[in-house]
Amino acid sequence: MSSFEDLERAIMDGEEERTIEVVDRLLESGEDPEKIIDEGIVPSMRAVGEKFDSGEYFIPDMLVSADASQAALGKLEPLLSTESAEKSDRAVFATVQGDQHDIGKNLAVMIFKGAGYRVKDLGTDVSPEEVVEAVKEFDADVVGLSALLTTTMEVQREVIEALDGDGVRDEVLVAVGGAPVTEEYADDIGADVYGASPFEALNKLDDLV
Known about the structure:
It is built from 10 helices and 5 strands, in the order αααααβαβαβαβαβα. The protein is globular and about 50 Å long. It is α/β, with parallel strands linked by helices.
């Protein structure tokens, strides 16, 4: 089994210590950190997503795999060239104003980080204005908006309107999700992507970013 296959297996098994050992072995053999991310970590998290979508993996499986991939990224990120780091896609995530639920948003943050995105997590109860400011300051390519209540999902529309009003709507892709959110609703409010799961959103965004 090659070291890249070892890395995929370690991440998919959620074994953080073994993941770091494989990354160290790859680095010692002269592999480029960017290649380890692109050909090792990212495909591994894609495979985890496929298993989740097929019902073979569950949320706890995703969480431990995301932790393992995060550990690997933490090891590799300081070794990336400035050029490589700057060309990574950037995503801002928030649970919208009035909503304190963060499990889905936190899961999305971990998964997108594991897929190689540079992520800014704004937390919960985030106003449209705060999202707009973060998009501009972080130079974001993607905005992920979570709403777990029917009473707060309308704020996703308000965020999109605020982005439009500030003249930055065309600069970002907006992904929405959450228990009450549907694809029809996402289309109605002008979102670019609806994700029933973070992996579904990630896969759809891959075709657009």
